[in-house]
Amino acid sequence: MIHLTSADYTRQPWKNGRGVTVELWRCERNGEMLARLSRASVVEDGPFSIFPGIERNLTVLSGPGFRLTGEDHAFRCDPLLPVAFPGDVALMATETNGRQSDDFNVMTARSLPRPTVFLAQNDSLPSGGQLALYALGPCRVNGRELARDDLILTKGPVTLSGDWPVLAVRFQGLPDQ
Predict the structure, then answer these.
(1) Which secondary structure element, helix H or strand E, spans residue 19, and what is its range?
(2) Of 20, 68, 88, 132, which has the most beta carbons under 10 Å away?
(3) Rg of the chain, C-alpha, whole Å
(4) How many domains are there within the chain?
(5) b/e for 57-85, b at 16 or more Cβ within 10 A?
């Protein structure tokens, strides 16, 4: 089990230069990204960065959410409801109404199975694939104390407890790290 905290995360500019991403974790093979977990804030209407060959999943963690629109795509990004979309489609964030929404992002190479993204609290989760658990507040994973914004990576089964949920991501097909 790997336990990452804010001290382990890196900040980097968005690919389109209109904001900043906090990269929580990244898995690469031969210099190519296979998977990435990150946090970002959408503070104004504008374009999303384009990532060819990448599947995306976004979950608004705080704020009112916003709308994503583009050719053949139009959907709401509401709090705590994961939304999947292709990374290589030009999308615009709209209806931000000048209010900030913080979100959690999952990116995976299109060659991999799409991950499952879900909220979990006071649950037992079986092993299977790579499991990432992002704490939305203080909680425990297999008895280990997590603070808000901590990330656990594991392949084993876990028992979750505490007053706050985690945002869980189950990956398949990633190499051992």
Answers:
(1) none
(2) 132
(3) 16
(4) 2
(5) bbbbbebebbbbeeeeeeeebeeeebbeb
Q: Specify the 3-state DSSP secondary structure of 172.
A: coil
Residues 99 and 146 in one domain: no
**Residue 146, φ and ψ in degrees, nearest 5:** -120, 140
Structural domain of 128: 116-171
Structural domain includes residue 1: no
Q: Using CA atoms, how far apart are residues 37 and 109, in angstroms rounded to an integer?
A: 12
Q: Which amino acid is it at 46?
A: G
Residues 17-72 pLDDT 10s:
777 899 999 999 998 999 999 999 999 999 998 999 999 999 999 999 999 999 88
Helix (H, G, I), strand (E, B) or coil at 148: coil
Instruction: Tell me, rounded to whole angstroms, the distance of Cα 24 from its chain centroid.
Output: 9
Strands 83-86 and 10-13, sheet pairing: unpaired
Bridge partners (DSSP) listed for residue 135: 166
pLDDT tens digit sequence for 132-144: 999 999 999 999 9
- Which of 95, 97, 58 has the alpha carbon at shortest distance from 79? 58
Q: What is the largest CA-CA distance in the chain?
A: 46
